[in-house]
Structure formats: C-alpha cells, structure tokens
Design a protein that fits this description.
Blueprint (H helix, E strand, L loop, with lengths): L5 H6 L2 H16 L8 H7 L8 E5 L7 H4 L7 E5 L7 H13 L4 E7 L3 H7 L7 H6 L2 H9 L8 H19 L1 H8 L4 E7 L6 E3 L1
Parallel strand pairs: 1-2, 1-3, 3-4
Antiparallel strand pairs: 4-5
Helix pairs in contact: 8-9
Amino acid sequence: MKALTKVLQEKMSPAVALNSLLEGNKRFTQQLQVNRDLMSQVSDTATGQFPFAAILSCIDSRVPAEIVFDQGIGDLFSVRVAGNVVNEDVLGSLEYACKVAGSKLVLVMGHTKCGAVTAACENVELGNITSLLAKIKPAIALSENNSSSGAISVENVSVKNVGISIETLRNESPILAEMEQQGLIQIVGAIYDVASGIVAVI
C-alpha cells in the first residue's frame, strides 16, 4: 500500500478520516491488518508527508496509535503525553498538524487502566509528575460531582479527562476551534481498552 498523497488527503473529509481509523482498529482486533511495504512508504514520504489525522494519546506502551489503528508510515501525527493532557506544546503540535499539514481529524484518546489517571486519583506527588497530574485533577472533581456514592472510578475519570482535553483544545486554540466550526476538521474523543484492543468513540 502506497503512502497517503496530498490529493487523497485533501479529498478526505473529517468523517471519512474518523471512519478510516475505526475501520483500521477493527482490522487490528480481528488480526486482518493491511500488508504494507513499510520501506516503500519510507521512500514515498521522504520528500513530504500528508497525514489524515492527528492522535493525542497517552505515553502508555500498550497504546501505540499506528498499530491499534492499523496505519502506515505517513498516515498519522502522533502526540503522546502521560494522561493525554493538553499543554502549550501539544496545542502547537496539533495546530501544525491541521492548519499547516492538512490533517482532517484530531482524536483525543484515553485508555483503560491508565497509570497517570490512577496516580492522580491517588494524589501521587513526585518531581515534575506532580504538575502533570494536576491537569487531570479537574476530571476527578467532575467524577466526584457526578457520583451519588462518592466513590471514584478511574475509568470514569479517564473518560472525563478526554472530554476536558477536548474542551481545552477548543478553548485555548482559536485555530483549531475555527477550523472545526468551518467543518475543516473534527475533534473527537475515544477510549482504548487495553484488554480487548477496541477503540470506542465517546
């Protein structure tokens, strides 16, 4: 399979981009991955890249975006940070992906059994990890407010955290917000199940 071209990228809509990811995840879970000549894709992309989507996900070693979505070299921008939180560098990276490089979709993907979310729930404090986990605390507060029993579910916090990251993208990046309003991109949330390999849009 050849690497994505500029013409194909430009023709792709945000909805088609999302469907391409979900179809790729379906192939992955069914062990029907596309047979790619990766070195050919290396050659194809040597002079330029035209990824159709940008994924903001966790650094967790069990959640490699290109693999779980069955994509090749040149298909995805991958931004990874513990807890899939948003900071200025993440904003700049995603603005580049969409505004400069033409990606049609931003997918914010959390996952089950997230160590960063668990650490935030347990109030872990350690070096620079402390300030990173602080970005997850609003999701814990939301979960507490929505819980009748007062118990906190790590998985529920992960879902809330994805939602907060999406809202942060829209609120702190006028570029991405405007592109989404114009229908040029779509910003979507998802959760990856580390036990099944399935990605569910939320």
